Amino acid sequence: MLVSEILAIKGKVLYTIAPSKHLAEAVEIMTEQDVGSLVVFSKGQMTGMLTFREVLQAVHRAGREWADMEVGDAMLASPMRATPDMEMDALRRLMIDHHQRYLPVMDGDTLMGVVSFHDVAKAVLEEQSFENRMLKNYIRNWPEEDKAD
């Protein structure tokens, strides 16, 4: 399965934020939209990712002033990236090796979506369920052997 197929299952809704926005606004968006990440965009280019991990690290660093901190000061500036033609196994390896729960999917400079570890798990489950149904159907309809006289 390709990353583009995972995006097709998930849908391509994107949530973005500017690096100059306050962290409190980012948390509000993440909470209202029930998402674990925001892609940080500036001047039409992706400049980073903000996930709940970066938010918690910012809260730890800034203490009570965390809400006024700018997204650009909290974001992951150089997130790993996936491509639409990447195989799911390569995607999983990249996410595990770099401890990334969310990866932006880029086609050149174009953001195609964000894939989460949850999206990958769901795609694996659906793929395995499909294969399981196909195998059971194949076994159920097993051709009888010819009986020779």
Care to count the β-strands? 5
**How many domains in all?**
1
Mean pLDDT: 89
Structural class, judged by helices and strands?
alpha+beta
List SSEs in N-to-C order. Answer: HEHEEHHHEEH
Shape type: elongated
User: Into which percent range does the helicity of residues fall?
Assistant: 40-55%
CATH topology: CBS-domain
Low-confidence spans: none
Distance between the termini: 47 Å
Query: What is the name of the CATH class?
Result: Alpha Beta
Number of helices: 6
User: How would you write the strand order of the largest sheet?
Assistant: 1-2-3
* Radius of gyration from CA coordinates: 21 Å
CATH superfamily: CBS-domain
CATH architecture: Roll
- How much of the sequence is in beta strands? 15-25%
Could you name the key traits of this structure?
alpha+beta; CBS-domain; three-stranded mixed β-sheet; two-stranded antiparallel ribbon
Your description of this structure?
With 149 residues, the protein is an alpha+beta fold. The chain has 6 helices and 5 strands, in the order H-E-H-E-E-H-H-H-E-E-H. The chain has helices at 3-10, 23-33, 52-62, 71-74, 88-97, 117-140, and strands at residues 16-17, 37-42, 45-51, 102-107, 110-116. The strands form 2 sheets. A 3-stranded mixed sheet has the order 1-2-3. Strands 4-5 form a two-stranded antiparallel ribbon. Strand 1 (16-17), helix 2 and strand 2 form a beta-alpha-beta unit. The chain is elongated. The model has no long low-confidence stretch (mean pLDDT 89).
Blueprint (SSEs and pairs):
Elements: H1 3-10, E1 16-17, H2 23-33, E2 37-42, E3 45-51, H3 52-62, H4 71-74, H5 88-97, E4 102-107, E5 110-116, H6 117-140
Parallel strand pairs: 1-2
Antiparallel strand pairs: 2-3, 4-5
